[in-house]
Every structure is written in structure tokens, then in C-alpha cells.
């Protein structure tokens, strides 16, 4: 009985801690100090407390329309929703925005599609910054060379990439960085492979006709980019099916993070190395 009582008390305490997280913020969140505990928010659709990096912020426009604030930089009070299609659709269906904001709102039935498109655009734009900072490798042969030099944190293959060339790249990665049968105690994990963008989409962002193969080097941009892909994966299939990668984890970049990247891109110091590598190679169609 005592054990049951302790269990009930722990559950009640956890529930109270979760509901103590406010639904709305008072304005764009500020970037916390290094080493500080990651901020949490309560999803207005599921009522669950989650890390802010796993959610999307929404604000109201002057006419009461619900607007996704992907970078969490827009002024005014903001409501947070878990970053997946089901949660966004649930928030629209149940009128969660009107309840949370205590106002009449206009929430489009296509809001989840809007969030997906904005997340995809943000991820592609970050690749452009990575290219300008020298963190992105493009081209089939260039990617293979980069893989031989360092383990990539992430590979990029366009959704319309040649299966033969893609398989050769993956075979090289598996051979160099896959599990070592001779030393099973060495826990080596393969890097994830992103395959959710077409060659034309990547090319438009990177100043090429088409980009088929790419890889991203270690650094702050790579870490933030992986976080954005995790958010995007709540709306579309991001990772290459059948490929057993390391856990694709990371924190999404805040608006200030992106501004810092842009400042470096325009002449500042390069991003600090975080021990995370993403290699990207792209192929230009002939």
C-alpha cells in the first residue's frame, strides 16, 4: 500500500508540474544562457509539456488569423503546438487556438500544410548558409572524398537521385563507419541520410541546376539543421527508408541562432565546432 501511495503521489506531482507550464508566452522567447535547462512549453492541443525545440510557436495576426512562427521571433503572445501534423490538425479541429488565446480566431484547415512548407523552406535556407560558410560539400565525387576524410553527421541524397550512385555512397559510409565485427565493443553508428528534397529544390537554394549528393560538416549550423529536420519529420518522411542511422537528434535553431549564422556568413568568425559532422555532396545534371 505504501508503494502504491508513493506511486500515486509521484504521478500527481508530475501532472501538476506539467500543467504548471503556461499555455501562452508573453512574447518571443529569449535565448537562454549556455548550460541552462532547455525551456518547456505546454502544447495547446494535447496539453502535454514538451521541450520548446520540439514545438512550433503560433501567434495571431491583427485580423485574428493563426500564423505559424517557425523561428519564434514574431511579436505578441504565442501558443505552442507539438511539431507533428496530428497535433496541429487537432488544435484546429478542437478550437484550441481560440481557447488558448481567449479570442475569436481564424485557423485554416490547411495549417499543417503551411507549417510543413515553412519548415522545409527553413531547412533549405539553412543549407544555403552552410554552403556559404564552407560547411556544405556538393557533388558525387566531392562527397565521397569528404566521407573518406571524416565521418559525416548527415548525408543528403535528393529524392530523385540515381539509386546506383546513392548505393555506392552508402556502401562507402557503411564500410568506413559501420559496426566493426572484429571489435563489437566499439559502438559505431551510421550517420542519417536525408532524402526528402528534390534535386531542383536543393539546386535552387544552392545556386545549381540540380543538387543530387551532398554532406554537411560538423558545426553549429549542422546541429541546428538536424534539429529542424527532426521537426520537419513530424510532417513528411525525411530520412531514407531502410537505412539504420544514428539517432537524428538535435535542437531546432531559434531566430537569434539563425541571425548569428547569417552574421558569420557575412564575414564573421566561422561557427564553433561541436563535434557533429554533416557532409553534403551534390551532383549537377549534365
Taking the sheet with the most strands, its summary is: 4 strands, antiparallel
Please give the share of residues in helix: 25-40%
What is the count of distinct domains? Answer: 2
Rg, Å, rounded: 21 Å
Roughly how many Å apart are the termini? 74 Å
Give the class-level CATH name of the largest domain.
Answer: Alpha Beta
Name given to the CATH homologous superfamily of the largest domain:
Ribosomal protein L30/S12
Q: Please tell me what the overall shape is.
A: elongated
How many DSSP H or I helices? 9
What low-confidence regions span 5 or more consecutive residues with pLDDT below 50?
Answer: 1-17, 246-250, 253-286
Which architecture of the largest domain would the CATH scheme give at its second level? 2-Layer Sandwich
Average pLDDT taken over every residue:
79
Could you give the count of β-strands? Answer: 10
Query: Strand content of the residues, in percent?
Result: 5-15%
Biggest sheet: strand arrangement: 1-6-4-5
Structural class: alpha+beta
Report on this model:
Helices cover 39% and strands 12% of the residues. The protein has helices at residues 2-19, 85-93, 96-101, 111-132, 140-149, 163-177, 199-206, 220-232, 255-265, and strands at residues 24-25, 40-42, 49-51, 55-60, 66-69, 78-82, 136-138, 155-157, 193-194, 213-216. It has 2 domains: 2-28 and 37-109, Hypothetical Cytosolic Protein, Chain: A; 121-265, 60s Ribosomal Protein L30, Chain: A (2-Layer Sandwich), CATH 3.30.1330.30. It starts with a helix and ends in a 21-residue tail after the last helix. By secondary structure, it is α+β, with helices and mostly antiparallel strands. α4 runs parallel beside α9. The protein has a 4-stranded antiparallel beta sheet. It has a 4-stranded mixed beta sheet with strand order 7-10-8-9. It contains 9 helices and 10 strands.
Amino acid at each position: 500500500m505504501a508503494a502504491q501511495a508513493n506511486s500515486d503521489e509521484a504521478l500527481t506531482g508530475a501532472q501538476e508540474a506539467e500543467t504548471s507550464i503556461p499555455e501562452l508566452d508573453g512574447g518571443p522567447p529569449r535565448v537562454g544562457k549556455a548550460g541552462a535547462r532547455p525551456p518547456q512549453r505546454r502544447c495547446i492541443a494535447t496539453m502535454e509539456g514538451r521541450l520548446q525545440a520540439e514545438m512550433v510557436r503560433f501567434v495571431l495576426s491583427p485580423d485574428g488569423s493563426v500564423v505559424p512562427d517557425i523561428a519564434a521571433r514574431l511579436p505578441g503572445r504565442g501558443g505552442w503546438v507539438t511539431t507533428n501534423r496530428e497535433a496541429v490538425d487537432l488544435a484546429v479541429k478542437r478550437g484550441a487556438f481560440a481557447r488558448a488565446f481567449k479570442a475569436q480566431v481564424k485557423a485554416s484547415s490547411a495549417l499543417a500544410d503551411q507549417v510543413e512548407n515553412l519548415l522545409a523552406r527553413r531547412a533549405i535556407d539553412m543549407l544555403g548558409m552552410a554552403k556559404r560558410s564552407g560547411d556544405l560539400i556538393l557533388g558525387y565525387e566531392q562527397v565521397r572524398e569528404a566521407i573518406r576524410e571524416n565521418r559525416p553527421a548527415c548525408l543528403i541524397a535528393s529524392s530523385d537521385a540515381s539509386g546506383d550512385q546513392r548505393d555506392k555512397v552508402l556502401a562507402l559510409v557503411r564500410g568506413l563507419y559501420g559496426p566493426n565485427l572484429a571489435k563489437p565493443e566499439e559502438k559505431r553508428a551510421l550517420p542519417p541520410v536525408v532524402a526528402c528534397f528534390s534535386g531542383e529544390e536543393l539546386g535552387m537554394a544552392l545556386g545549381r541546376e540540380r543538387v543530387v549528393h551532398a554532406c554537411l560538416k560538423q558545426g553549429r549550423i549542422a546541429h541546428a539543421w538536424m534539429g529542424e529536420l527532426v521537426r520537419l519529420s513530424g510532417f513528411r518522411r525525411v530520412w531514407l527508408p531502410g537505412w539504420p542511422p544514428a539517432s537524428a537528434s538535435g535542437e531546432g535553431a531559434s531566430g537569434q541562432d539563425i541571425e548569428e549564422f547569417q552574421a558569420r556568413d557575412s564575414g564573421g568568425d566561422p561557427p564553433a565546432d561541436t563535434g557533429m559532422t554533416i557532409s553534403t555532396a551534390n551532383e549537377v545534371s549534365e
